[in-house]
Amino acid sequence: MTRKLHLALHPYGVGGPGQHGLWKDPGVAKNASIDINYYIAQAKAAEHALFDALFIVDSQFINATYPAHYLNRLEPLTLLSAVATHTKHIGLVATASSTYNSPFNLARRFASLDHISGGRAGWNVVTSFDTGTSRNYGLEEHLDYATRYGRALESVQVVRGLWDSYEDDAFPADVEHGVFLDPSKLHALNHAGEHFRVDGPLNLSRSPQGQPVIFQAGVSEEGRNLAAQVAEGIYAPGGSIEDAHAYYTDIKRRTALTGRDPDHIKIFIHGGPVVRGTDAAAQRREADIFAEDDDFDRNVGLLGRAFGAHDFSQYDLDAPFPDVAHLAERGGRTGAARIIERAKTEGLTLRQVVATFNERKKSPFVGSPKTVADTIEQWFAAGTFDGINLAFRNDEDLSLFVDGVIPLLQERGLYRTEYEADTLRGNLGLPIPANRHTLVTA
Questions:
Q1: Is the whole-model pTM more than 0.85?
Q2: Maximum Cα interatomic distance, the chain, rounded to a whole number of Å
């Protein structure tokens, strides 16, 4: 097989959505989510295993019902700038909202991380679905779907334009002739669009990979179309092998329709492997993890996130699921729509919706090292992903995967035995974007 599997690491800290009991694990430090040494250690372990990237999620609104990791965690770009100085090869992907950040600030911050890391930065573009975030930015309500995704597309376009402010040979730094900058190779953007007016130029040159890699995660029509237009990496939901294959095929098809090369978009599904010496032992451990995290009150709070952090504790748990469809438009619309449809079709009470919303979803990547390697190979060969965004319960689970599964994938020719490049683009097999001004003048 000529295709090579890509792997990313998504650290949980003290536990994100659905991992309500992780902070109680004796193998997890209670301050993990704000300890930079925890992230440095995670990044080094992933780099030792030749992972492509470390991926940091983010949101900008909380209430007391939110998962432990969300309550107290570091800002992604600050975090990854520190990690960059302790690593050499692994990509560093930060989540940042296009809804609540200006394109100029985003362009400068990500370009700075790209330089600090020597060309290993990536931006996970999100539109934010926590309605409460709007009130942290002086707005009465969250933007609707169409506005958020229109703003996201324009934001990426502006940021990419700013990243091209300097041509690659703009700084001759010629001491003899007293010329530091060739002004003909500095370009203002002068963008005036529906959502933004940005003059530019950006006061930062391009990095060794040209521009940071654009990632995106979306399952709605708007999300898929945005991905097809601008994404170079996607964090996909996964699900069954059939669901993953359908999503993979759809995104590659949409990408081709935009005139882009489908191979220039890498799709990562979520994976939470549980590896033990035998299949039975791994399955028992997966069941134990679910039991550790099954907290009904926290699950009620988690349900509210899909509806813009709506407070479901105000309702009678044994009454029919309340009419909250109007909240989905400014929340996580796709996920909320599924919840509403199931509640309506099956006539579920709120208590039953909470239970089904958090019902045990078995990972396909559970078992002995050979079983997990076999499953990864099967899914990869079936065209369901280009990579897996891996999340592990604790350091022991990460080590069991790295020591047990990685060697098997390497023996089968599915996974690298050394890094191909020093940049994130190079390791993902993505081209360096041509500077638009060089293209115009060539």
A1: yes
A2: 81
